[in-house]
Each structure stands twice: as structure tokens, then as C-alpha cells.
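Re: the 340-residue chain
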Amino acid sequence: MRFQRLDLNLLVALDALLAEKSVSLAAERIFLSQSATSSALGRLREYFGDELLVVRGRQMVLTARAESLVEPVRAVLEQIRTTIAVAPAFDPATSDRSIKIMASDYSTEVLVSTALRDLSSRAPGMQFEIMPLNDAPIETLERGAIDLLLTIDFAISTDHPSQFLFQDDYVVVGWAGNPAMAGEMTNDLYFSLGHVTHRFGKARLSAFEDWFVRRQTKPRRIEAIAPSFLSMPSLLVGTNRIATMHRRLAERVAAYVPLVIKPAPMPIPPIREAVQWHISNNNDAAIRWVVEGLARAAADKPEFAGDGTVVSIDVGRGKGLSRAEIAEEFLATQAPTGRG
């Protein structure tokens, strides 16, 4: 169908090309071959009299005309979807939906794995794909590459709906044979030892505990940077290193790895894990059903720590910051966003 010489079928391809800035990625998104998507780009260039996508260095970027089309095209397609397309009734028992969830291995271990056991028993035909956190989770959510994002409340976007799931605090973990773990973990002892931490993605962005501890007046010595939260314990066993870990994960791992858990020697703000979805999916019954399942699994978990309203972010100066202030400082240093 054409409207003023424009094949309206090309709008879907245009939206994908504008979002992905890549012919191959756009082709995957709209389930077309790369040659068909390239042909669609050619026709769109002819219609608009503009290149739309141009090569700059090793990547493709949008022209000014293409940038001006991003929001209008997205709005038109969203209006069509919400006013014309009739969503079929959702029945988990018969659904074959595929739901993509972006979550850290910490969230997967302490919550998602439990939730999926319940959800899969209720919806045997549904598929759940767990994707690791990348450098730009909010952007990934906004371009429709994932359905749900699990992250800490410091890092969620105010542009999309979200739901709080659970709270967790931090503990110090070390090998059972580490002499430093035999007594009290003092502040001086903590900073005298070698540490293991975890950083995310290609940009090696800090997890919250790494960012927070680096804000203290005393520097800590990082001896190993792990590729995931779950790989941290293996870098502790047989060494005198320590790690600052989420309590839920530490307790699960300590059940089968010879680790000792000690209270953190400083007041680290507890994390509040939340799940977020795109605002355009707010009425998607399948996504809301999965969110309810995650919340149900989280409700069965014990809560740790206080509300963390005000904490000392700098031990030397004793400066108290609210969670909102901590979130602002944290996000300012995390390009483009932070992690759980």
C-alpha cells in the first residue's frame, strides 16, 4: 500500500534502520534477509532524497534528516499498534511467547532462576532468554531488543515503568583458609588486603560496590577483576584476597565453596533491585505476567539491611547522602548507566 508515493510497508524497515543504525541488525529485528533490508534502505533513500545512513569510520550514523525521522516514525507505528492491532488474549498455559530478560548473573542466580521454575511450570510453551548486562541496558530496552531489564534502582530510567523486587546488602567474603577471615573484619584490615571485584561490559563499568568503595578516603588494592559476580569466589579460594559481595549471593555460594562471610566494616548502601519494561509494553499481558512472577519469587526471599536512607559516602569526612543523591553521583560517573 502506498501513501503519497511511500510504500507504507517500508515504515517498519525505516524504524528498524533508524534504531539499529545497521542493515544487518535491522534485518534481524524485522526478520528479513540482509539483501531485502538493504533494498528497502535504497528505496527509502530514493523517497526521502537523503542517504539516511552514512558510513563514518567503522560504523554507520544517521544523517540530520534521519535523526528528525526517529520519533515521528516510532510514534506512527506505535499509534498503529495500539489503535489498530488487536492483541490476542494471553493464556500462559498455551502461550508460545519468547521473553528476553537482561539481568546480571547475580540477579539470575538469586531471583530469576527461582522465578523461571515457577513460570515455566505454568507456561510450558514459553521461552525465556536471559541476556547479560551490556554497556547500555536502557538503550537496549528502548530499541526493543529486550522485554525486561533487571537492575538496581539507582540505574533505572524514569521514562519507563518499573517495579521494585527486593533489597540486599553487602558482606565481605574470603577463603576459609585466609587468616584475615579468622577474626573481626576492621576497616584497617579491609583496606590492607588485596581485593577481587567485578566490572561490566566492554567499557569495564563498575558494579555499585566497586564505585562506592572507591569513593572512600582509603584506596583499596584490586588484585583481580572478575568477568562476572559468580566467578569472584573462585578468585578467592586458596588466596588471602577478599571480595565485597551481595549477601544473597555470598550465602548461596558459601553453601558449596569454602568461604567465610563477615559484615562489611563500613556502611555501604543496600541495593534495591527492580525490573523495568518499555512504556509501550505497559499493557502487554505476557510481560506483566512475567513481572508478577518475578515479584512473587522475590516476595519469598528474606529482606536484608535497613532502608539506607542516609549513609556515609566518605568515611574520612562523614558526609551523609540520601539515596537520591547517591544515585545522581553514581549515574554521573557511569557512561551510559550503572549496574546491580
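The radius of gyration is 23 Å.
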